Automatic annotation (TrEMBL):
It comes from Pseudomonas coronafaciens pv. garcae. The keyword Ligase does not apply. Gene3D superfamilies: 2.40.50.100, Nucleic acid-binding proteins (2.40.50.140), P-loop containing nucleotide triphosphate hydrolases (3.40.50.300). It holds the Pfam family TOBE_2. This is ABC transporter:TOBE. One of its GO terms (molecular function) is ATP hydrolysis activity.
Amino acid sequence: MANLSIRNLQKGFDGHQIIKGIDLDVKDREFVVFVGPSGCGKSTLLRLIAGLEEVTSGTIELDGRDITQVTPAKRDLAMVFQTYALYPHMTVGKNLSFALDLAGGDKAEIKKKVDEAARILELGPLLERKPKQLSGGQRQRVAIGRAIVRNPKIFLFDEPLSNLDAALRVQTRLELSRLHKELQATMIYVTHDQVEAMTLADKVVVLNGGKVEQVGSPLELYHHPANLFVAGFLGTPKMGFLKGKISRVDSASCEVELDAGTRINLPVNATGQSVGAPVTLGIRPEHLNLAQNGDCQLQVIADVSERLGSDTYCHVRTHSGEPLTLRIRGDLASQYGETLNLHLDSAHCHLFDAQGLVIAKALQTAAA
């Protein structure tokens, strides 16, 4: 078992609060990803869990045991850093066994653990090589192997893929996902890369300014963002936003008059909102379509097209200057300066109030 509980965790440096009262639960065998922009506190939070930073206030419990003041070596956690931190004069095998050798473990048991880690990570043929003879991806696997041999309760990863090139990042990301399933381990992973967060995590924790913005499964956060920050942070290309104001409200829908010069009826529960209240409409590229048969809701000016083969991303702007991106078939493209007529899929639009909080969809409210 490896259940982690964090309560009202705070960390300050020189009078500045970096972590601001975080509450979080990590369940046994979960793959939890901390994601957010630079400076949001995600690596600091991981270091607090590892014991590499002192907690200002709050508690960290592992399986009901308070480890807030316990030294890193006695927390039964293993951390894999962004830099591989391998011993250059040692072979791969010695790098894997070093911590266990230092602890004075049984040599036969150590060899068994090293061989098992090498099998899992396909490092068998590399055990006699030195780090300088390895590729970046192989070095990262050795760093992960050093954590595996310790058989920790929780694995901690601090942006482990950021030093790899694009192809290796994809390959190693798949290997980490497979590793999690094979070990059935609890893992906490820090990244600024939302693709890693979406593809690896059972649970995503979105951080901003030292606070948790939202916690949930990747698809829950993608389809049901709690606020403007989460909506704009998750998704590539990002969600487009249109400013407007409420022009009509009833129990199951509201009409929004957009600054871009059109009105749209949305199935949201806006009964707490007043006519004239400022709102922001959010829509993802896959829910913007080229208008057919006179169903135009929005006219835009084409800017740049990115042709990716299977899809084309058309970057456009409204007459009020707001940028949007739409995803269309790969065999289509727009011309710079061309006027395009768009249809917005109202069922997939998100509406946010003046404070940036989501206004719940009527169907969600009814289901609750």
